[in-house]
Here is the input.
Amino acid sequence: MKVFYYTHTGHRFTLARFRKAVAIINSFPDFEITLLTSDYKIASFSKEFGIKKAIGIDVLRNIPNVANHGDILIYDSDEHNEEQLQDMIYYFSKFIRLSTLENDVCRQGEFLINPYIQNSDTTLNHLPVQSQFFGKFQKDIDVTFFFGDDDYDKDLLKYAKDFGDFKPNLLLGFYYFIGYEDELSPYFEKIFEVEDYDEVIQKSKVVVTSSYQTALETLASGGKPIYIEREDRDDSPNKFLSDLGIPVLKYFDSKKIIEIMNQHTEYKKISNQNSQIQKKLEVLFKVENTLATPKFSRDK
Here is the structure.
């Protein structure tokens, strides 16, 4: 029996789910968890994030080409319909699903991880954040702008042209294209490479971002995140961020950002719960389960 982790991620629709996968997989040094991702590029670079084994499989229907009936699957995607979800629950001996939907429910036979849900034997109220972001850090970077790991249509340049007097530092994402930095540099104080991501987030006093995962990592690091919604993204975590005291803007507004930075905002603290999720899932990994008839097959 093997353990797999499938995440829907890529340069068109953010790496937030991938960063959650890194947080969870790296919490299990005693289990070999194979990352399955819809993006071949991030699969090939995943070792840079501490992932030992990763395979690009394109879409969820290719999961049975790698995983077998009776294996364990940790699943983070919204590609499925209800029938596919039920098939996966039947196919795997343990099916663990991550979700950020406020009104999501736990189906019979699955284990659900969701920041809005109450803890129970089959649910965990959690949204994973990598352990290295928890702690006290020297805050010697005033303001950092991190648009996200994806910017296929160069939307950041449109934002930057409306900065006005707002001139923060820029932290590049994983999927920026050659030469794009030259177009962006006039609008930013300093540009940090994506390889400096962890250190920049840890050292920044304020991080303006359109990545909910980066907002959480900033909060964990003792910084002050400001989250900007993107029209092309799922906004389901927004209430969760607001509940943590993180300002959520419906659109980019440099004057509003400056106003927020100049006022006192009560941010809530978050704790490192990775050991909690590790203990919970390790129990699931070790418990035997009677398998139902497989439905989620290579032919579907």
